[in-house]
Design a protein that fits this description.
The chain is α+β, with helices and mostly antiparallel strands. Helices cover about 35% and strands about 20% of the residues. It has two domains: about 100 residues, no CATH class; about 90 residues, no CATH class. A four-stranded antiparallel sheet has the order 1-8-3-4, with no helix packed on it. The protein has a four-stranded mixed sheet with strand order 2-7-6-5, with no helix packed on it. A hairpin with a 5-residue loop joins strand 3 and strand 4. The longest helix is centred in the C-terminal third of the chain and has 22 residues.
């Protein structure tokens, strides 16, 4: 069972030597930084969600805002028209634009392809019906709330998050040795949990993980799906 916010804060304080000048508000900031960093390096399974309600196509529209807090689309966008539902095929933005530079001139039909630009999905062909999109995605974890005592949003990664938050706190107090020790422990714990999390190559697309890999270059963490061929 994942630790609660109160338990996690207590562990960070203990790791920092129970200093008298530690403020809970500062620890919450370090914890939320640590959680965001941890979510950045991999699409952990606890972050997966099949969103079946947030996005619905509109007749004649090909731009759609992604559901709130979506980090990555995990290779699955399904157009549900009840009788001939289909999983849409991803195209990289520059390929999408090259193939269909003026989608509004090509008429309306059941969508077959999608791309992601910024915080938006773009569909082709332009839909001719209002239908739900089922989106298999990874979502950013909800930050710790100062007013509640919820469990760690990243579940069993709580121990790693404690270590990284401790490292942030040690850096603020210029405790360089403690900072280095806990940062190393953090990386080791992430690697251990990644093995428990299982091989994610079936649901972490290359177009997402290449970007993530750049964010953690040199960390020693293996980001999945980098050896796959580039999608068309």
């Amino acid at each position: 069972m994942a630790l609660t916010k109160t338990q996690i804060i207590a562990q960070v304080k203990k790791n920092l030597g129970n200093r008298g000048n530690l403020e809970t508000t500062d620890i919450l900031i370090w914890l939320n930084w640590a959680m965001r960093d941890t979510a950045s390096i991999r699409n952990w399974r606890i972050m997966q969600i099949l969103d079946q309600t947030s996005v619905q196509t509109r007749i004649g529209a090909h731009w759609y805002a992604l559901p709130p807090e979506v980090k990555d689309i995990l290779g699955y966008v399904h157009y549900d028209d009840e009788t001939q539902s289909r999983t849409l095929t991803y195209k990289q933005p520059h390929v999408f634009r090259r193939l269909w530079p003026h989608p509004e001139s090509d008429g309306q039909n059941r969508p077959e392809f999608y791309t992601i630009e910024g915080s938006y999905l773009k569909l082709y062909p332009i839909p001719n019906e209002a239908r739900k999109l089922h989106i298999f995605c990874a979502k950013w974890p909800i930050p710790f709330d100062v007013n509640s005592d919820e469990e760690c949003p990243l579940g069993d990664l709580d121990q790693a998050i404690i270590c990284l938050a401790t490292s942030y706190g040690a850096r603020q107090h210029k405790d360089w040795e403690r900072m280095t020790v806990h940062k190393k422990d953090y990386i080791k714990l992430c690697k251990q949990y990644a093995r428990i999390d299982g091989p994610p190559s079936d649901w972490t697309p290359q177009y997402a993980s290449e970007r993530i890999a750049r964010q953690v270059s040199g960390s020693g963490l293996v980001v999945p799906a980098l050896n796959n061929s580039n999608p068309a």
